[in-house]
Amino acid sequence: xxxxxxxxxxxxxxxxxxxxxxxxxxxxxxxxxxxxxxxxxxxxxxxxxxxxxxxxxxxxxxxxxxxxxxxxxxxxxxxxxxxxxxxxxxxxxxxxxxxxxxxxxxxxxxxxxxxxxxxxxxxxxxxxxxxxxxxxxxxxxxxxxxxxxxxxxxxxxxxxxxxxxxxxxxxxxxxxx
Length: 177
Description:
By secondary structure, the protein is of the alpha/beta class. The protein is built from 6 helices and 5 strands.
């Protein structure tokens, strides 16, 4: 099965512990854990700092599953949950793959930390997850809420810890079964 994971730094596997922010080892990144558990061919299209693109890139027709998890950076940059969801709708609507091949994951809510100084951002991340679910229903695509997977976050309140990546992979595997 050919899978593409399209997201931000938490898809990339960003390790916030280093001064220059490296990347966790492959065995500690959810995308690689998913590949190891399933035997699928998985392309990691995570990118640090990625906000929801204004248009969708080309995804090959041979893609069996496109997993999209975006929106946290949009909220961190000051967009409201509604504005982020509108961007997400434009992005998802521009994807040429069959709707049955799309899985939208609402990112886990952020927590107070180095990058999350206000409770408002936490509330916004919860609201964004609810809006993502409504959007997935509207567009007829699969949906998962990573906020239900108890993901441990690093000191910054945004990035997964290594345990967080394992918890995310376990939640996603359960969702895909």
